Predict the 3D structure of the following.
Amino acid sequence: DTEVTQTPKHLVMGMTNKKSLKCEQHMGHRAMYWYKQKAKKPPELMFVYSYEKLSINESVPSRFSPECPNSSLLNLHLHALQPEDSALYLCASSQDPGTGALGYTFGSGTRLTVV
Amino acid sequence: KNEVEQSPQNLTAQEGEFITINCSYSVGISALHWLQQHPGGGIVSLFMLSSGKKKHGRLIATINIQEKHSSLHITASHPRDSAVYICAVRASGSRLTFGEGTQLTVNP
């Protein structure tokens, strides 16, 4: 299995809803990432988990809450989002958290719309 | 000035043409990545380079560490190559810094 699987592929949520995005990989990668991508812009790093511990939080608002229950799973819990949070949320993984060596694998993303 | 600059921003080609996308960066790096993103879709990692040249099918990527420059070439381009191509560099650790991307359109 050489994929990063993200679910759901599309999500529409209201500003008072609570929802979660899920990311799964079975490649034994020990670093996992959440990125946010607005239209026609490059991805922006949100969080990095290294060996299941949060190692980087790019000053992301607390309405986004990451969780890494085990080495294969990464969740992003969403609560009280704003319409400007609508974007493509990408998960990625890499084998070596220290160097990202052997490259990255990206998921296909969750297209989030906040109404 | 961005740490990673790509050119051109947009590129339109006819099927069969040879295509070059350029990437220049201003920081010392441990590796450079070329990524492909189709409309509305996820990102596919094409190449990771730290020196020299790599080839995969019709795609060739080169890097000149001294000049802080990399190029992505597509030979015999095809409409299915239409996508955004993103250059990203890794300076230290596992954090990537992305270029703004090059939108490639290949017409039949």
In short: The radius of gyration of chain B is 13 Å. The longest strand of chain B covers residues 83-90. The interface with chain A takes residues 30-31, 33, 35, 40-45, 48, 86, 88, 90, 93-96, 98-101 of chain B (CB under 8 Å).
